[in-house]
Sequence to fold (160 residues):
Amino acid sequence: LAERPSLAGVRHILLVLSGKGGVGKSTISTELALALRSAGKRVGILDVDLCGPSIPRMLRVQDSAVHQCDSGWVPVFVGQDKAIALMSIGFLLERPDDAVVWRGPKKNALIKQFVTDVAWGDLDFLIVDTPPGTSDEHISAVEALRPHQLLGAILVTTPQ
Fold:
Protein backbone atom coordinates (compact mmCIF):
# COMPACT_ATOMS: atom_id res chain seq x y z
CA LEU A 1 0.00 0.00 0.00
CA ALA A 2 1.59 3.27 -1.13
CA GLU A 3 1.61 6.12 1.37
CA ARG A 4 -0.40 9.17 0.42
CA PRO A 5 1.82 12.26 0.08
CA SER A 6 1.27 14.71 2.96
CA LEU A 7 -0.02 17.48 0.65
CA ALA A 8 -2.16 15.21 -1.55
CA GLY A 9 -5.37 16.48 0.10
CA VAL A 10 -4.42 20.18 -0.14
CA ARG A 11 -6.26 21.97 -2.97
CA HIS A 12 -4.47 25.37 -2.94
CA ILE A 13 -1.22 26.67 -1.44
CA LEU A 14 -0.57 30.38 -0.83
CA LEU A 15 2.80 31.86 0.14
CA VAL A 16 2.83 35.02 2.26
CA LEU A 17 6.12 36.92 1.92
CA SER A 18 7.80 40.30 2.07
CA GLY A 19 11.16 41.87 1.43
CA LYS A 20 11.60 42.96 5.06
CA GLY A 21 10.50 42.17 8.59
CA GLY A 22 7.81 43.78 10.67
CA VAL A 23 5.31 44.39 7.87
CA GLY A 24 2.60 42.02 9.11
CA LYS A 25 3.11 38.74 7.24
CA SER A 26 2.04 36.64 10.20
CA THR A 27 -0.94 38.90 10.87
CA ILE A 28 -2.03 38.63 7.21
CA SER A 29 -1.54 34.85 7.29
CA THR A 30 -3.59 34.52 10.47
CA GLU A 31 -6.38 36.86 9.35
CA LEU A 32 -6.56 35.17 5.95
CA ALA A 33 -6.86 31.76 7.62
CA LEU A 34 -9.61 33.04 9.93
CA ALA A 35 -11.50 34.63 7.01
CA LEU A 36 -11.28 31.46 4.92
CA ARG A 37 -12.44 29.40 7.90
CA SER A 38 -15.39 31.78 8.34
CA ALA A 39 -16.23 31.16 4.68
CA GLY A 40 -16.47 27.44 5.43
CA LYS A 41 -13.07 26.45 4.07
CA ARG A 42 -10.69 23.92 5.63
CA VAL A 43 -7.43 25.76 6.26
CA GLY A 44 -3.88 25.03 7.34
CA ILE A 45 -1.01 27.37 8.19
CA LEU A 46 2.59 26.29 7.74
CA ASP A 47 4.77 28.68 9.74
CA VAL A 48 8.25 28.51 8.17
CA ASP A 49 9.47 31.64 9.95
CA LEU A 50 11.90 29.51 11.95
CA CYS A 51 13.58 32.37 13.85
CA GLY A 52 10.32 34.16 14.73
CA PRO A 53 7.43 31.68 14.88
CA SER A 54 4.64 34.03 16.02
CA ILE A 55 1.53 32.31 14.66
CA PRO A 56 1.12 29.86 17.57
CA ARG A 57 0.95 32.85 19.93
CA MET A 58 -1.41 34.78 17.63
CA LEU A 59 -3.82 31.84 17.62
CA ARG A 60 -3.33 31.23 21.37
CA VAL A 61 -2.00 27.68 20.99
CA GLN A 62 1.65 28.33 21.89
CA ASP A 63 1.56 25.74 24.70
CA SER A 64 0.37 22.95 22.40
CA ALA A 65 2.50 19.99 21.35
CA VAL A 66 2.92 18.23 18.03
CA HIS A 67 2.41 14.47 17.99
CA GLN A 68 3.50 11.72 15.63
CA CYS A 69 1.20 9.41 13.70
CA ASP A 70 1.82 6.75 11.07
CA SER A 71 1.89 9.36 8.30
CA GLY A 72 4.11 11.92 10.08
CA TRP A 73 3.53 14.86 12.38
CA VAL A 74 -0.02 15.75 13.31
CA PRO A 75 -0.52 19.53 13.14
CA VAL A 76 -2.06 21.43 16.05
CA PHE A 77 -5.76 22.12 15.48
CA VAL A 78 -6.98 25.58 16.45
CA GLY A 79 -10.30 26.68 17.92
CA GLN A 80 -13.31 24.84 19.24
CA ASP A 81 -14.23 23.69 15.74
CA LYS A 82 -10.63 22.55 15.04
CA ALA A 83 -10.99 24.14 11.58
CA ILE A 84 -7.43 25.48 11.29
CA ALA A 85 -4.46 23.10 11.24
CA LEU A 86 -1.13 24.67 12.22
CA MET A 87 2.48 23.51 12.08
CA SER A 88 5.29 25.64 13.46
CA ILE A 89 8.75 25.19 14.92
CA GLY A 90 7.27 26.99 17.92
CA PHE A 91 5.69 23.66 18.93
CA LEU A 92 9.03 21.85 18.77
CA LEU A 93 10.96 24.17 21.10
CA GLU A 94 11.31 23.46 24.81
CA ARG A 95 10.10 26.97 25.61
CA PRO A 96 8.13 29.11 23.12
CA ASP A 97 10.58 32.01 23.49
CA ASP A 98 13.71 29.92 22.79
CA ALA A 99 15.89 31.31 20.02
CA VAL A 100 16.58 29.22 16.93
CA VAL A 101 20.16 29.74 15.81
CA TRP A 102 20.64 27.36 12.90
CA ARG A 103 22.68 27.48 9.72
CA GLY A 104 21.01 27.22 6.32
CA PRO A 105 21.19 23.43 5.76
CA LYS A 106 19.43 22.63 9.05
CA LYS A 107 16.70 25.25 8.41
CA ASN A 108 16.23 23.99 4.86
CA ALA A 109 15.95 20.38 6.03
CA LEU A 110 13.25 21.31 8.57
CA ILE A 111 11.23 23.21 5.93
CA LYS A 112 11.43 20.21 3.62
CA GLN A 113 10.34 17.97 6.51
CA PHE A 114 7.39 20.28 7.26
CA VAL A 115 6.29 19.95 3.62
CA THR A 116 6.77 16.17 3.35
CA ASP A 117 6.10 14.85 6.87
CA VAL A 118 3.05 16.72 8.19
CA ALA A 119 -0.28 14.88 7.98
CA TRP A 120 -2.37 17.83 6.76
CA GLY A 121 -5.34 15.76 5.63
CA ASP A 122 -7.89 17.42 3.36
CA LEU A 123 -7.53 21.20 3.17
CA ASP A 124 -8.96 23.80 0.82
CA PHE A 125 -6.03 26.16 1.53
CA LEU A 126 -2.56 25.87 3.02
CA ILE A 127 -1.11 29.27 3.89
CA VAL A 128 2.68 29.34 4.16
CA ASP A 129 3.94 32.14 6.42
CA THR A 130 7.55 32.83 5.43
CA PRO A 131 10.37 34.64 7.25
CA PRO A 132 11.29 38.22 6.38
CA GLY A 133 13.52 38.95 3.41
CA THR A 134 14.63 36.77 0.53
CA SER A 135 16.64 34.02 2.19
CA ASP A 136 17.39 30.34 1.65
CA GLU A 137 14.18 29.48 3.50
CA HIS A 138 12.11 30.94 0.65
CA ILE A 139 13.99 28.95 -1.97
CA SER A 140 13.66 25.77 0.12
CA ALA A 141 9.93 26.30 0.61
CA VAL A 142 9.28 26.95 -3.09
CA GLU A 143 11.41 23.97 -4.17
CA ALA A 144 9.67 21.65 -1.70
CA LEU A 145 6.24 22.90 -2.78
CA ARG A 146 6.99 22.86 -6.54
CA PRO A 147 5.28 19.47 -7.22
CA HIS A 148 2.09 20.66 -5.49
CA GLN A 149 -0.78 23.04 -6.30
CA LEU A 150 0.88 26.38 -5.62
CA LEU A 151 -1.90 28.92 -6.16
CA GLY A 152 0.24 32.01 -5.75
CA ALA A 153 1.81 34.45 -3.35
CA ILE A 154 0.75 37.45 -1.33
CA LEU A 155 3.48 40.07 -1.05
CA VAL A 156 3.07 42.22 2.07
CA THR A 157 4.51 45.71 1.79
CA THR A 158 4.48 49.01 3.67
CA PRO A 159 4.44 52.51 2.16
CA GLN A 160 7.91 53.67 3.32
About this structure: The chain has four helices and eight strands. The radius of gyration is 15 Å. Residues 10-156 form a domain with the Rossmann fold fold (CATH 3.40.50.300).
